[in-house]
Design brief:
42% of the residues lie in helices and 15% in strands. A five-stranded mixed β-sheet has the order 1-2-5-3-4, with helices on both faces.
Length: 142
């Protein structure tokens, strides 16, 4: 259910409030919601997910990514959340793809190597090769 990308970061498709306890049991300390509220019928709201995360003793953040794509403030917020995390981070969206992409963009902004990020994503089943130019740019390797 949770797809490991690195030792610190995993991504997932939409999780349910009751999955917060499982996340905690698996060593996650932070959950990041990358879905905007109301994206799909039956999707738990951010408020419900925040309450469930807090009840499980997890830090919770919302960095919603909609159809308009990624912005620098979203990338910077994700980078800050990753830097502040005191344990494993679980990011989720509808399929896990946006969360994986945002993780890679944030890590590139923190100076990580684009090829290493692409390889880590691929090991988790995500093809982010199309992001290579922006990953290089964010990492300062243009």
């Amino acid at each position: 259910m949770f797809i490991r990308i690195t030792d610190q970061v995993s991504v997932a498709p939409q999780i349910a409030p009751e999955d917060m306890a499982l996340a905690k049991a698996q060593g996650f300390t932070t959950v990041i919601n990358n879905r905007p509220d109301g994206e799909a019928n039956g999707q738990p709201s951010g408020a419900v997910m925040r309450a469930a995360a807090m009840a499980a003793g997890l830090h919770y953040a919302e960095i919603p990514i909609d159809h308009s794509g990624f912005s620098r403030p979203q990338v910077d917020t994700m980078a800050a959340e990753l830097a502040a995390a005191e344990g494993g981070v679980l990011a989720y969206c509808r399929s896990g793809t946006r969360s994986c992409n945002l993780w890679a963009l944030a890590e590139a902004a923190r100076g990580e190597d684009a090829d290493a990020l692409i390889a880590a994503a691929a090991a988790g089943g995500y093809d982010i090769g199309g992001l290579r130019p922006i990953l290089h740019s964010l990492a300062g390797h243009d």
